[in-house]
Amino acid sequence: MTNIQTAETAGNDAFRSIDAATGLATGEAFAVHGADDVATACAAADAAFDAYRATDNAARADFLERIGEEIVALGDTLIVTAMRESGLPRARLEGERGRTVGQLKLFAGVVRRGGWMGVRIDPALPDRAPLPRPDLRLRMIPLGPVAVFGASNFPLAFSTAGGDTASALAAGCPVVVKGHPAHPATGAMVAGAIEAAVAACGLPKGVFSHLVGPGNDLGSTLVQDPRIAAVGFTGSRAGGLALVKLAQARDVPIPVYAEMSSINPVVLLPEALKARGAALGTAFVGSLTMGAGQFCTNPGLVLAIEGDGLDAFVAAAATALPDAPAATMLTGGIHAAYQKGVEALAGHDAVKTIAQGKVGEGVAQGQAAFFETTAAQFLSDAALGHEVFGASSLLVRCADENELHAVLRAAEGQLTATIQMDAGDAGMASRLIPLLERKAGRILANGWPTGVEVAHAMVHGGPFPATSDGRTTSVGSLAIDRFLRPVSYQNLLPELLPACVRDDTDAPRLIDGVVAG
Ligand code: NAP
């Protein structure tokens, strides 16, 4: 479906790649896909589904790895294009490319090992009294074609061939990507790499399609297409909720796995503050300002109990932040939303500005900001707990442990919660953890939430509004489960059973609930 045209040939319906640093259109323009293209892509995905899901684990793993190889083969042009469209620096995008390829490899390994099939066998018990038990065999199967909305803030690792696409393809689901309008040229290059891998692996073309165009209609039409069986999304709360609503209103409602909004509380416990308040303040500024703060795991909320250690933390942050350079934000729209959020905090009667970063020259320059308020004020205004996407954070000063808990109880669902602690804080930390478990998908100690390891035990998810479905993750190998459902086979003749649930299967399996082998 990729349809790259030049500015000259694309005509009035074209939309253009924008240089994030200048806000100006580059020479590249892209034909806008419409409802007909959505229908064509979904029909192709539906037609490809049975053949694709029938591929064996080795073939599907090879395909995932081939996508990675095709992405690497795009060379430096991909990096330069993504730098231009996102404003993100080279090192970050090279790292993102590595992560993109790494997560494709991770899923290839998961697929090869076969545990994803979730095989369970409860053999028949014909002599059981008072009733015999039937022969029951279970495996997971893919849901069907998946619509993926690429994220603006990870043009490689969470976009066209990013985590959602990799996990859906690993599950055996064809994918239709709705490319993010902030990086159409990057998206088109990566889509080309996936299409090359589809061809090289002899798979049906409909296994992957890429649709581009500005405006909500394209994505809305895609989510409403009856052939789409699930949706993966990363972006704004408003956008994610709009898609959830559309998906629920369909004749056949479907799951939407939307990652939306999180302010990632960081709790600074007293002993840690006493021992290293100033060092924590400096390190916090590093985490806050990384990537212009455009991370879903950015530390947007800091909580601490009043004391000397907290004062040292604030003083160090107030010293470091004014040296933090402004950075080009991903799009003019994201910058405008950031400015609005920062201005609302700066103008709030109950909020004091601790420090701000350097003012930038040029368009869409995000200036970092750190604010403070009291627990009582935070508890009286829910808006203080809303995400300001970018390098902005709010410190909430608490009088005691009870207030700290009250603030956390009032906070919305989060992707992460961080505890900075020393040995003497262990009691307080252990009282916090049950509360944090109810609020966040990942709890971390003595680190910063930015930086998400792609691994088997990672959870990048959490209660609403961090995501629309806190039972899952969008990063790490568990993400494959979002696109699978169980089927149980009762008393089927062996020759009718899928190979992975037959007696001679070598798939990882439970027999009578016990790990076999
Ligand atoms: P966005 O506006 O939600 O857009 C994400 C994707 O969804 C785009 O492809 C967009 O394309 C589509 N979309 C948005 N609203 C839609 C609707 N009502 N119906 C159908 N499709 C829709 O997010 P963004 O542009 O990436 O960033 C905007 C804001 O999102 C940021 O300022 C930030 O607040 C938040 N954000 C959060 C995270 C996070 O991980 N927490 C990450 C990135 C961004 P069209 O606009 O072309 O329809």
UniProtKB/TrEMBL annotation:
It holds the Pfam family Aldedh. GO terms for molecular function: oxidoreductase activity, acting on the aldehyde or oxo group of donors, NAD or NADP as acceptor. Keywords: Oxidoreductase. Residues 14-462 form the Aldehyde dehydrogenase domain. It comes from the Bacteria. This is NADP-dependent aldehyde dehydrogenase.
